Every structure is written in structure tokens, then in C-alpha cells.
């Protein structure tokens, strides 16, 4: 009889966590070292990282394929406008936007979580359409024409750009680290059990509804923060651009191509989407044809994404969320 | 009188929604697949009608004997090549794959046909109308769309309840594994069901394009309306789908009578209201078909 040890952590994990911390510190120093020209592309990339990690929490860990997350991006953007218009400093306003989006998502979750699978997916599209129409019909937030974001006039362009960059970095790191720490807890086990078989999970005592709702609320809150960042980046909030289903398409692409249900996958997916966008954005609609096609192909051909291929080949797990069973080492 | 008129127009509009929705309902009931590209396939049908009718110089109705078999073949092909593979990858894969397909179709149409709104040549039928009373005028086109929806639904119902094909389809819908055990060949049956779903969607697309206009991105809203009709009517119930479509149409036209800007919002709120109060829909189908309710 062989004795075994069950471990979650490994030397690779220690090393990769250290590398991740160094990367974050380096990223935080970018405005001092490289300045403006490097900030703009990195803001886009970090926004992608945040969106992908949050969508992964929903679809990858909890089995909730929401294609209506742009609903909460839009709500976050408008929430930021509203708090800024009431004199709140826009930087804490990002947190306020996240809270507002999460609070609004609570009653919504009670309706849409009655459905699952494809029906849940379409219901989330309906919710996004409702929010978009409601905003369009509200003159107080600019109706169809949109509104300019106030509260940033006092900053010099260089400082404003750097602050937006840091805020985006904070949201991106918080999304990745937050999802990572969350799925390492009991919630992670619950969510994955619910994602793979809700009935079996319920029979084992997992509180299915609570687990799903928590994932939905956190993803909505995170999307609200990302929406607030988008509003700060563009300085103008307009219904057709913030409530754009394209954001949800991007989330789907990044998570599927990078690797669903892993921490590393969405980050890789964000890098891939960023590269594709740089290479193909001049091709207009063809760019989205490729994005949609690759996402569908990844589901069928490599359902664990690029990271899945790498980790299977080399047995790597840089930020482990599961446990490994190893033969016991000789003392 | 304007209200009576609004209700009548709403009922007729509901027929169109039911026509799009019945394919969605059928595909879910039999294959357990929610095709998120269903609306886009309807829009493809409208574009195909546009290409054929302008190439031949005839009203779009004349092209239907060519258009519908093409749509059927496309549906069967999609099932064999794509959906069947997706279904083997678990419950989430079909959702992800059909959404990817939807994104591809919308953007391919945009490249091929630009984003200009288009309309279809409906011939003399498009302009003809008749009076019920002095205040109520009904367009023959709307009437035809409604009657076509009823005919398609009755036809499907008859096929399902009376034919050998229908018995096999119902057996699969009830229990796929047992159906396989007793020797039903599932693959060709799935292909025909997907073909019918896409053909009815294309037919609905032709009516949408003749009554109003369409553009490459119209599929998303088409899908949402069809889906709402299915959920309000009750999953898996064909006549429920008609009732759901009519509920949507009446709400849209009656609210539009008061304020056009709120018409679509009212439809979505009606759907969310149903989800809150009666998530099983108006006509509750046999429990085995309620797989979509979590």
C-alpha cells in the first residue's frame, strides 16, 4: 500500500506567485518609467483581464453563461456619472459604481437564475436590453445622446491618464486575486459542483441558489467597476457604446480561448484578444467574425483552452485551485 | 375603437413572433439545444429572399419553393456538422457554440450586405388591405403572416401527433436513451428537426422583411422576442408559443398606442413579470420538457 500526500501548493506555485507579484509591481511603476505611450495599450489589456476573470467566475466556475454582462458595464458607467455629478470624487466613485451594480443585480438574479443553460443566457440579454432602453428613455442621464463625465477637470492630462491607469490596474489585480482567493474557499468547490451538476450538488447539501447568486452578484459588481473605468477612459457615456454586446463577446472569447475554470486561462485569453485586436482591428467586421469563430472552435476542439493544453502537456499549475495527490516522499 | 384595432393588430403581430419561436421551441424540446443563432438564421432567410427575388425579378413569395428547402438543408447541415458535436461536449457547449455562430453570422452579413436596412418585395399582397368596420383596417400581409403561423403550428402539431416521424420525435423528446434502445435512429431525426426549425425561421424572416425592414444585427432582437414567446407560452408547448407570441404582440401594439417609445420595454417587462410570477408559462408542458428550469 502506497501512502500519498494531498497538497494544493507546490514550488511552481510559490515561484509563479512571486513572479506575479513582481509583474504587478513593475506594472505599477509604468507611469514613472515609461509614461503616457505605454499606458493606453496597458489600460486596454488590464480592462480585458478584469472582464475575463469575472466572466470566468460566472461561466467557468459556476456554469452560468451570461451573455448580458454588458448590462452591468453600462450600469457601472452610468452609476459613476451619477455619483460624480453629485460631487463625489470619481476614484472612490469606482467602488460606489461596483456596489450599485451589485445591488441592482440582486433582484435581477432572483428572476434570471430561475432559468439555466441557454435560457438563462437569453434572459441575461433581455435584462441588458431593458437597462439600455430604460437609460435611453431617461432624460436625466442624457437619453440617447449620453452624458460627459464630470469631476476630472481639475487634473492635468498626464496625471489623469496615470490615475486611470492605476485604477485599472487595481481593478484588474483585484479581479484576478479576488476570484482566485474566492474559488480556493469552500465557495469554489460549491460553485464547481453546481456548475457541473446542480442536482447532484444539491443532493450533497450544497446550497445551489446561494452559490449561484453569490457568483452572479460578484461578477455584476466587478463589471460595474469595469464600466466605471470605461466611463473614465472615454469621459463620455452613451447607451449604445456602453451597453454593447461586443463586451460580452470579448469575455466569452477570452475565457474560452484562454481556458475556462482556471485562474491563468482568462489572463492568457486577454493577451490573445489584445494581440488580435492590435493585428486585426483595421479589418472591421472580419475581426469579430474571427473572434466568434475562434470562440466556437475552442469550445469544440480544445474545451480547456490554451492554458488547458499547456498545463496538460507540462503538468503545470501556477495558481492552483484544486488539490493534487502525490506519492509520499521518503523522510 | 382604436383599442380594439390595437388588440387586433397585436394578435396578428403575435403570429409572426410565434412563427419565429416555434423552431426555437421544437429544437429545445427535442434536442435540448437553445440555438442562440436562431434569430440570425431568420435574418439570413430574409437576405436569401432578397437575393433570390431581386435576381429573378419576382415577389419574394415566388422564391419560397427554392428558399425553404435551402433553409431546411442549412439547418440539417448545421445539426450534423456543428450542433451534434457541441451536444457531445456537455450542456454549456451548445450555448457557447451557437453564440459564437451568431456573432459570426451578424458580422459576415455586415461585411457582405453593409448595415443598411433592407426591405423585401412583397408584390401586390404587401399593399392590399380590407375593412372589418369603418375604423378597423387589416392588412392582408399581416393576416397572411398570422394564418401562415397558425398553419405551420397546426402542421407541426399534426406531424408530431399523427405520423411515425412524430412518434419517434416525441419518444426522443421524452427520453433520448430509451428511444435509442428501442431502435430509433436519432441522427437523421435530429437533422430533420433542425432543418424544420431553420426553415420556419427563414419563413418568419421573409415575413419580417416584407412587413418591415431588417439589417445584419436584427437577429439579436428577433431571438429575444422568440425566446420570450416560448417562455411566456410554456416551454415545449406549440400552442402555448402562439399564445405567448400573441401576448407579446398585443402588449407591444397597445402600449405603442399610448407611447411608441415604451412598446418594446413593455414587452420585456411582461416577460420578466412572467418569470417572477409564473416561470412555467401559460401552458405547462409535461414535466420532462421543463429541463430549462433550474
Summary keywords:
heterodimer; A: 331 residues; mainly alpha; ABC transporter involved in vitamin B12 uptake, BtuC; two-stranded antiparallel ribbon; 73% helix; globular; B: 294 residues; disordered C terminus
Task: State the helical fraction of chain B.
Answer: over 70%
Shape of chain B: globular
Per DSSP E runs of 2 or more residues, the count of β-strands of chain A stands at 4
Strand order of the largest sheet of chain B: 1-2
Please tell me about this protein's structure.
The complex is a heterodimer of chains A (331) and B (294). Chain A has 331 residues and is mainly alpha-helical. Chain A has 14 helices and four strands. The radius of gyration of chain A is 20 Å and the shape is globular. The mean pLDDT of chain A is 87. Chain B has helices at residues 2-31, 38-56, 64-88, 92-113, 140-162, 164-174, 176-181, 186-211, 218-233, 238-258, 263-277; strands at residues 129-131, 137-139. In chain B, 73% of the residues lie in helices and 2% in strands. Chain B is built from eleven helices and two strands; from the N terminus they run ααααββααααααα. The termini of chain B are far apart. At the A-B interface, helix 4, helix 5, helix 11 and helix 13 of A face helix 3, helix 4, helix 9 and helix 11 of B.
Amino acid at each position: 500500500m502506497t501512502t500519498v500526500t494531498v497538497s494544493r501548493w507546490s514550488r511552481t506555485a510559490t515561484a509563479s506567485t512571486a513572479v506575479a507579484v513582481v509583474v504587478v509591481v513593475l506594472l505599477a511603476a509604468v507611469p514613472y518609467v515609461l509614461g503616457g505611450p505605454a499606458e493606453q495599450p496597458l489600460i486596454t489589456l488590464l480592462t480585458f483581464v478584469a472582464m475575463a476573470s469575472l466572466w470566468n467566475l460566472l461561466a467557468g466556475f459556476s456554469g452560468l453563461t451570461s451573455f448580458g454582462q454588458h448590462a452591468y458595464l453600462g450600469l457601472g458607467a452610468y452609476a459613476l456619472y451619477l455619483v460624480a455629478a453629485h460631487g463625489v470624487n470619481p476614484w472612490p466613485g469606482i467602488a460606489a459604481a461596483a456596489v450599485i451594480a451589485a445591488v441592482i443585480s440582486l433582484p435581477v438574479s432572483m428572476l434570471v437564475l430561475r432559468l439555466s443553460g441557454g435560457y438563462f443566457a437569453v434572459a441575461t440579454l433581455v435584462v441588458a436590453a431593458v437597462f439600455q432602453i430604460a437609460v435611453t428613455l431617461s432624460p436625466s442621464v442624457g437619453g440617447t445622446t449620453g452624458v460627459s463625465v464630470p469631476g476630472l477637470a481639475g487634473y492635468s492630462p498626464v496625471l489623469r491618464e496615470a490615475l486611470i491607469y492605476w485604477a485599472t490596474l487595481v481593478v484588474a489585480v483585484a479581479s484576478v486575486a479576488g476570484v482566485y482567493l474566492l474559488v480556493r474557499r469552500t465557495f469554489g468547490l460549491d460553485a464547481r459542483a453546481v456548475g457541473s451538476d446542480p442536482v447532484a450538488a444539491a443532493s450533497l447539501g450544497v446550497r445551489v441558489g446561494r452559490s449561484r447568486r453569490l457568483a452572479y452578484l460578484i461578477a455584476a459588481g466587478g463589471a460595474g467597476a469595469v464600466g466605471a473605468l470605461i466611463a473614465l477612459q472615454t469621459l463620455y457615456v452613451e447607451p449604445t457604446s456602453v451597453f454593447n454586446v461586443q463586451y460580452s463577446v470579448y469575455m466569452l472569447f477570452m475565457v474560452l480561448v484562454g481556458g475556462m475554470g482556471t485562474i491563468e486561462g482568462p489572463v492568457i485569453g486577454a493577451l490573445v484578444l489584445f494581440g488580435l485586436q492590435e493585428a486585426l482591428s483595421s479589418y472591421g467586421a472580419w475581426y469579430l467574425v474571427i473572434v466568434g469563430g475562434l470562440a466556437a472552435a475552442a469550445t469544440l476542439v480544445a474545451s480547456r483552452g490554451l492554458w488547458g493544453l499547456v498545463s496538460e502537456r507540462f503538468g503545470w499549475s501556477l495558481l492552483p485551485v484544486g488539490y493534487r495527490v502525490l506519492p509520499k516522499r521518503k523522510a | 375603437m382604436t383599442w380594439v384595432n390595437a388588440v387586433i393588430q397585436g394578435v396578428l403581430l403575435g403570429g409572426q413572433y410565434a412563427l419565429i419561436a416555434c423552431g426555437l421551441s421544437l429544437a429545445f424540446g427535442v434536442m435540448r439545444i437553445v440555438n442562440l443563432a436562431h434569430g440570425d438564421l431568420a435574418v439570413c432567410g430574409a437576405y436569401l429572399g432578397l437575393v433570390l427575388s431581386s435576381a429573378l425579378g419576382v415577389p419574394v413569395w415566388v422564391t419560397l419553393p427554392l428558399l425553404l428547402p435551402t433553409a431546411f438543408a442549412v439547418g440539417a447541415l448545421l445539426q450534423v456538422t456543428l450542433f451534434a458535436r457541441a451536444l457531445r461536449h456537455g450542456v454549456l457547449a451548445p450555448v457557447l457554440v451557437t453564440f459564437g455562430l451568431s456573432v459570426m453570422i451578424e458580422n459576415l452579413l455586415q461585411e457582405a450586405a453593409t448595415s443598411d436596412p433592407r426591405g423585401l418585395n412583397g408584390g401586390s399582397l404587401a399593399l392590399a388591405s380590407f375593412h372589418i368596420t369603418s375604423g378597423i383596417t387589416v392588412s392582408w400581409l399581416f393576416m397572411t403572416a398570422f394564418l401562415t403561423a397558425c398553419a405551420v403550428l397546426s402542421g407541426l402539431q399534426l406531424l408530431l401527433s399523427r405520423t411515425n416521424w412524430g412518434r419517434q420525435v416525441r419518444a426522443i423528446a421524452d427520453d433520448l436513451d430509451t428511444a435509442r434502445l428501442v431502435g430509433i435512429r436519432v441522427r437523421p431525426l435530429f437533422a430533420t428537426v433542425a432543418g424544420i426549425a431553420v426553415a420556419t425561421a427563414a419563413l418568419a424572416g421573409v415575413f419580417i422583411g416584407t412587413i418591415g425592414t431588417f439589417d445584419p444585427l436584427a437577429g439579436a432582437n428577433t431571438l429575444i422576442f422568440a425566446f420570450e414567446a416560448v417562455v411566456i407560452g410554456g416551454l415545449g408547448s406549440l400552442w402555448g408559443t402562439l399564445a405567448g407570441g400573441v401576448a407579446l404582440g398585443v402588449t407591444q401594439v397597445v402600449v405603442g398606442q399610448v407611447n411608441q417609445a415604451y412598446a418594446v420595454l413593455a414587452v420585456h417587462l411582461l416577460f420578466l413579470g412572467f418569470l417572477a410570477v409564473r416561470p412555467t408559462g401559460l401552458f405547462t408542458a409535461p414535466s420532462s420538457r421543463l429541463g430549462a428550469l433550474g
